[in-house]
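Entry for NAI complex. Fields follow.
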Amino acid sequence: MKHRITLIPGDGIGPEVIDATRRFLDAAGAEIEWEEVEAGSAAMEKYGTPLPDIVLDSIKRNGVALKGPITTPVGEGFSSVNVSLRKQLNLFANVRPISSKYGISLKFQNVDMVIIRENTEDVYAGLEQDIAPGVAQTLKIITTVASDRIAKFAFDYARKEGRKTVHAVHKANIMKKSDGLFLKSCREIAKGYPGIEYKEIIVDNCAMQMVMNPEQFDVLVLTNLYGDIISDLGAGLVGGLGLVPGANYGNNLAVFEAVHGSAPDIAGQNKANPLAVMLSAEQMMRYLGEEHVANHMKHAIIVQLTEKTHLTADMGGSATTGELTDALISEIVQ
Ligand code: NAI
Ligand code: MG
């Protein structure tokens, strides 16, 4: 079946890894009609806004998008397109599987956790102001509606995927109101899932435990900022940002994107690891019911990561993005 999918190449390494992923999808037999749209600074120049309606309308119409990373100016300029997109489309759940099954991790062999990050509120609500010279304020917004919704998503996910434990990650010892509310939701929702063990962990301890003994974690549910930080920490445990895929889910909408950003330090050099976006695209094909295509992709990736003949520099090899992509394509067994 042919699928119509919105494509946002993004910037920095985005166009390189998205192009590699398109070639890989084609070779794996995916039938896709892409609707390509621009967001970020290129859109800013053209349309006067980094997130034009054209992008939002396209995703609403197609229901599915594949997205490359988009650079956000630091400390000034337009606010994050990535965050606005998630908020405007109400893509409330960000799902990021962190797994050592690809054998790139040097230290850990049995990491297999899924980070479920609330995507619409917390300090990402964009409520910031200068109160007085030398005093700035960012509001942290936590609501019962969003906390219930993400907790329910995490438990439903755990049940569907046959997972055993959900950890709620928080700092409710200090932020008794906001994180306290999040925790209250998690506790309530957990009661409806007696088959799944519910645990709580304070975020700083969680960071330490993840570095010392990440194998203990299964599903983690977190508010937005902790989810962001803990995701990158998790990526570091299993070989880096080049290997960790992601998906943002809302009601009948899904945007697939890697955890990593636009990596300006290596952009335009044909050096970026395309696997994180490819694995996101593999998830996208499963979401669309194209198990067959997804299995071809997964098989080729596992063969390459076992044989390690064409790894990019971040994985300790010397292959270019293009060479790794060619090798993956040659390993697809139709
Ligand atoms: P980053 O994830 O772009 O890069 C962090 C480090 O990981 C860099 O050393 C980079 O070279 C490396 N890296 C990342 N992806 C890689 C890949 N596929 N292959 C090989 N190496 C890779 O994070 P950074 O530098 O903090 O952010 C850069 C820009 O990206 C910022 O403007 C940020 O706002 C944006 N960003 C966008 C995201 C999105 O579009 N969803 C997510 C995260 C950051
Ligand atoms: Mg991040």
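NOTE: The two ends are 17 Å apart (CA to CA).
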